[in-house]
Amino acid sequence: MTRIYLDxxxxxxxxxxxxxxxxxxxxxxxxxxxxxxxxxxxFNHPFQARTAS
Length: 53
What we know:
This is Type II toxin-antitoxin system VapB family antitoxin. The protein has helices spanning 8-18, 23-40.
């Protein structure tokens, strides 16, 4: 099991937009989406990593 801290608002929005019903499905969908689009596009990383404090 992997434990990560998530942005609850972003997670709820992603679940509502995607129609998935579990947090795990939302995270997996987002990871697949990002890895597919990041690999297909040649761009500088537009997102900044947020670290837990």
